[in-house]
Structure formats: structure tokens, C-alpha cells
Design goal:
With 337 residues, the protein is of the alpha/beta class. It contains nine helices and 15 strands. It has two domains: 155 residues, Quinone Oxidoreductase, Chain A, domain 1 (Alpha-Beta Complex), CATH 3.90.180; 149 residues, NAD(P)-binding Rossmann-like Domain (Rossmann fold, 3-Layer(aba) Sandwich), CATH 3.40.50.720. It is globular and about 65 Å long.
């Protein structure tokens, strides 16, 4: 290596009880002074803040890839290659990968994607051009199939995936309704992202409002949260409708994960409950990114990215803020140089 680097990384110091708190994490340093053949050294520029991480922070073997005490916190980053002994990568290239919450990352290049900055700015490769945008794209267009005659409900509409999913459903001509956690976010969904209706699920009459604006028919329920909002929405699922399980943020911090009680309506309406994992579409990422970039440049969609600047040690605070609902779109930590 040309230089020695002092890496700063976030590890799990204790298993959270309920929502994760700042003191559940620790920041440690280490020296990086060796780069082996076929390895690259990446300097992190942006770190994605993912709600699903909470599901892995538990003292249980029930979950694949769980984070154990003193492990590096998992997370996707966009960074710049600053040294390379791998012929597939050159200094100065921007890359995307699940390399963890740390300032510097050493990788052999497996699972690393190059970011084409002609398609979108680097931070957008964690939002609209990254897994959130890809998830919204394929789950809607390949599985849910929105159309002008369909009513679409996006649960968790102001989050990383939901904020893009609603826009794609609008492009398909559907009536799009979103649920979110505040009146301010409702206004943002309508005025900035073009939702037809947005409902604050904290209001006591939220379900009555949903029933009214949907004419008591939801053809597509795109669920990012699970819990009560999804469960109540099943009461007005349309004939042969689909409920897509994209995420379950309301359940990630629970000791006992609970499913819906109102599933009987699925049988009555010949509807289906469909799981989704984005990695099934890995061979089609390029197709989606070309279309998403095109729509972005044509101003047909936005890629909401909630940037917060700071050092690596700001991650625990931002992760806590994510569960307080402070983000509009994808929460991303932009690292100070």
C-alpha cells in the first residue's frame, strides 16, 4: 500500500431491547496497512441507513446474516476506490456494495458494483438507483402490475422504497394512496411526489378516510411496514387483489413477530399475499437502472434522498432517527472527508 489508513467502524456493543439506541453501538478504530493481490481499498463516501438492520440485531439464530456482539454493523455504502490490486477496478472509480458501516473498506471485489455516474449522482445509488429503487421497480411492474383501472395503497409511503413505488404506480396511471406518520409527510407525498391521496395513520379516523378515497377497493396493497395499518387495509382488498410484502418495519424490533388477523378477506376476495426479494432480479438490474435514470432525467420521477452529513460515529444517532420517522425518502449518511 502507498499509505497507512486509520479506519473507523461501528460495531454492535449490546443487543437492543425494543428500538435500537445509540448506546447499543460502539465506534472502534484499526489500522489498514496491507492490501493483498486482487483486493481494493474503498473510501466510503455515503452510507445507507436501512430499517431492516434492526431485524438482524438480536440474540437469535432464527435470522440469516444476523449481527452478533462486536461484529461490524452491516450496511450498504457508496465509495471511491483509492487503491487497487484488482485488475477489474481502477483508482477513482465509484462503487456500491454491502461493505459495512466504516470509513475504509477492503474488498476482493466480489459483490461490488461500479456506479455509472453518467446515470445518476453517487448518493442516488443508495436510493433510487440502489436496492430501494430496484425493489420498487420490479415488485410493482413485474409482480403487482399497476394500471389505470387500479387503486394502489403504498403503506410506508415516505420511506426509501415507498417514496419511489408510489411514483412508479402513478406512471402506470393508477390512483395512488399513501400512508405515513405525519401531516407534513402527507403534504410532501402529494405536492412533491404526486400522490393522489396521503393519510396520516396516527389519526383515529385514518381507515374511514382510506375507505372513502379508495371507494372501499384496494387492488394493490404495497406493504412496507406490516402491523395494524396493513391488517386493517385487508378489509377492503379488491377482488383478485394483491398484497405485496416488501417490508415489515413495525415488527423488526419486536421480540415476537405477529402477522395479520384479517387474512380471511384474502380468501373471500380471491386475493393473494405475495412475498418479494429483490435478489431474484439481479440479472436485470441494468434494465431497471436505465429506465429509472431515464425517468429521473425526464423529470417523471424523483429519487428522494435524505442526506445527513457527519462522521461514521454519527450512524447510531441517525439509525435511531430513522425509527422516529425523521426521514423523507432514503436516509443516507454523507461522510465528511
Amino acid at each position: 500500500m502507498n499509505n497507512k489508513y486509520i479506519n473507523k467502524k461501528v460495531i454492535l456493543s449490546s443487543y437492543p431491547v425494543g428500538l435500537a439506541k445509540k448506546n447499543d453501538f460502539s465506534v472502534v478504530t484499526e489500522e489498514i496497512d496491507t492490501l493483498n493481490d486482487n483486493e481494493i481499498l474503498v473510501k466510503t463516501k455515503y452510507i445507507g441507513i436501512d430499517a431492516a438492520l434492526r431485524l438482524l440485531l438480536r440474540d437469535s439464530d432464527d435470522f440469516l446474516f444476523r449481527v452478533k456482539k462486536d461484529d461490524l454493523i452491516r450496511g450498504s455504502i457508496v465509495g471511491e476506490v483509492i487503491e487497487s490490486k484488482n485488475p477489474k477496478f481502477s483508482d477513482g472509480e465509484y462503487v456500491l456494495g454491502s461493505l459495512g458501516v466504516q470509513k475504509y473498506c477492503v474488498s476482493n471485489g466480489e459483490g461490488i458494483e461500479k456506479c455509472d455516474l453518467n446515470l445518476a449522482n453517487p448518493e442516488l445509488w443508495l436510493s433510487g438507483m440502489g436496492l430501494p429503487g430496484l425493489t420498487a421497480y420490479f415488485s410493482l411492474l413485474d409482480v403487482c402490475k399497476p394500471s389505470p383501472d387500479k387503486n394502489v395503497l403504498i403503506i410506508g409511503a415516505a420511506g426509501a422504497v415507498g417514496s419511489i413505488a408510489g411514483q412508479i404506480a402513478k406512471l402506470a396511471g393508477s390512483k395512488v394512496i399513501g400512508t405515513t406518520s405525519s401531516d407534513e409527510k402527507c403534504k410532501w407525498l402529494i405536492e412533491e411526489l404526486g400522490y393522489d391521496h396521503a393519510i396520516n395513520y396516527k389519526n383515529k379516523d385514518w381507515f374511514e378516510e382510506l375507505s372513502a378515497v379508495s371507494d372501499k377497493r384496494l387492488d394493490i396493497i404495497f406493504d412496507n411496514t406490516g402491523g395494524q395499518v396493513m391488517d386493517e387495509s385487508l378489509k377492503i382488498i379488491g377482488m383478485k387483489g394483491i398484497v405485496l410484502l416488501c417490508g415489515s418495519t413495525s415488527q423488526y424490533s419486536e421480540n415476537e413477530i405477529k402477522g395479520p388477523n384479517n387474512y380471511i378477506w384474502l380468501g373471500t376476495m380471491r386475493a393473494r399475499l405475495q412475498g418479494f426479494v429483490i435478489f431474484d432480479y439481479e440479472d436485470r438490474y441494468e434494465e431497471a437502472r436505465l429506465n429509472l435514470s431515464k425517468w429521473l432525467n425526464e423529470k417523471k420521477i424523483k429519487m428522494p434522498t435524505h442526506l445527513v452529513e457527519g462522521d461514521v460515529d454519527k450512524f447510531p444517532e441517525i439509525f435511531e432517527d430513522l425509527y422516529k420517522g425523521k426521514n423523507y425518502g432514503k436516509f443516507v449518511l454523507k461522510l465528511n472527508d
